[in-house]
Design goal:
Elements: H1 5-15, H2 17-55, E1 59-63, H3 67-76, E2 84-85, H4 88-93, E3 98-108, E4 121-125, E5 149-152, E6 164-167, E7 170-177, H5 184-187, E8 189-193, H6 194-206, E9 218-219, E10 221-226, H7 232-242, E11 246-250, H8 251-294, H9 296-304, H10 309-341, H11 343-350, H12 359-389, H13 393-397
């Protein structure tokens, strides 16, 4: 006897539509929660890895007392300004264990009324010693920046390459765009070479009203690459011991603190997800047990007509697979819709670097959640399916008489 397993499974699902919808909804909730949580966790992790590689620094040296502002600027992109004497740069370079050092100076455009952009971080950087900005242009320039050129972070979409804009009454041209990192410090900032800052200072000093409004001879942070023979913690201690008034922030510790923050935040969500998954398993298992009991006579007739135990087992498992597949796919779509709809809210509430997965990564996450959804249904229906396959035809036909 040849049975069309899928056709029978589909017919059974349609016959008990409400029950089929209930099973799919159970899987839907699990899939939507799982997809949302795993996507957010993966997004933060990817952003941390890419952002820190783009930053390229093992240590950030900042003025003592400005540690929290520096972390806030790095992780949340919050425009902040703090300064120390530029002479400290040479002192850092001479410190044992330092292989390279490049300074940056922060200007907050919202503090002035003479810029084309507002509430944004304008970062002056040492182009000659830079190892953090120029290597990560989306299109390599193959030359240094001119003193009338700037580089834009990827999130500043209002200005394309070649666009001209005004900072502090000084005109600049957008020479390039940085790759997206998920770190707002990089993605939402404008980078200008120190030669460009000199032009700004020259123009400001010409005007008696604006003279002295911008800091001179100051830097905000010094990014340090550590000699491989030393640890970043050790070099950080050397810097703080040898130079007064500075604090050395090890970037690995910042990343570790973000991971800890995310773990605490998502631990409760994961716990809820596990509870939902267990409840879904129990619910699906109970429902399929009821289905087997209700269909005993039907199963007996099938067996009497020549259906083998394997046929009965496959019918039950096929129903579980189809319902779980539908519920999982719908749940992933719902979870993805929620993430897309509330993307900005999620970014704002996390206060950590956040880079949405690439297409390839997203396909992997979708496949993972879909497979887990199907396995959930199959696992829950496994015992009822075995029970159904072991039913004796004669006893099943007489069931309920």
């Amino acid at each position: 006897m040849e049975l069309n397993i899928l056709s029978l499974s589909w017919s059974n699902m349609r016959r008990k539509l409400f029950r089929s919808v209930a099973i799919s909804l159970a899987v839907l909730v699990v899939a939507a929660t799982l997809f949302s949580v795993t996507t957010i966790m993966d997004s933060v992790e990817q952003s941390l890895e890419r952002g820190t590689s783009r930053l390229g620094a093992d240590i950030m040296v900042v003025p003592a007392g400005a540690e929290n502002e520096a972390r806030s600027a790095l992780l949340a992109g919050k425009p902040s300004t703090f300064y120390m004497d530029e002479a400290i740069v040479d002192q850092v370079r001479k410190t044992e264990g330092v292989s390279a050092a490049a300074s940056q100076t922060f200007l907050k455009t919202s503090s002035y009324s003479c810029c084309d952009v507002s509430d944004m971080l304008l970062i002056g950087f040492d182009q000659e010693n830079d190892f953090t900005i120029m290597p990560w242009l989306t299109q390599a320039m193959g030359r240094p920046l001119n003193n009338d050129e700037v580089i834009m972070g990827r999130n500043i979409t209002a200005y394309a390459t070649g666009f001209r804009l005004n900072f502090f009454n000084t005109q600049f041209k957008v020479a390039g765009m940085l790759e997206e990192t998920g770190m707002e410090f990089i993605d939402n900032s404008i980078f200008i070479p120190y030669s460009g800052l000199e032009r700004i200072h020259a123009n400001i000093e010409k005007n008696e009203k604006t003279r002295g409004t911008l800091p001179t001879g100051k830097v905000s942070t010094i990014l340090v690459q550590v000699d491989p023979r030393y640890t970043a913690d050790r070099v950080g201690l050397f810097i703080e011991a040898n130079i007064d008034g500075v604090k050395a922030i090890v970037t690995d510790k910042i990343i570790a603190s973000v991971r800890k923050q995310m773990f605490i935040l998502l631990r409760s969500i994961i716990s809820v997800s596990v509870i939902l998954w267990i409840m879904a398993l129990i619910l699906i298992g109970v429902v399929f047990s009821m289905i087997v009991n209700e269909r005993k006579k039907e199963i007996g007739i099938f067996r009497a007509m020549g259906a083998r135990k394997g046929h009965i087992f496959r019918i039950i498992i096929s129903e579980a697979t189809l319902l779980s597949l539908f519920g999982g796919a719908t749940g992933i779509a719902v979870g993805g819709g929620i993430l897309a709809t509330f993307r900005d809210t999620i970014n704002a509430s996390l206060h950590v670097p956040h880079l949405w997965p690439s297409t390839g990564r997203l396909v992997f996450l979708i496949s993972f959640c879909l497979v887990l959804s199907v396995l959930t249904g199959i696992t829950a229906a496994l015992i009822p399916a075995v029970r159904a396959a072991l039913i004796e035809p004669y006893e099943a036909i007489r069931y309920g008489e």
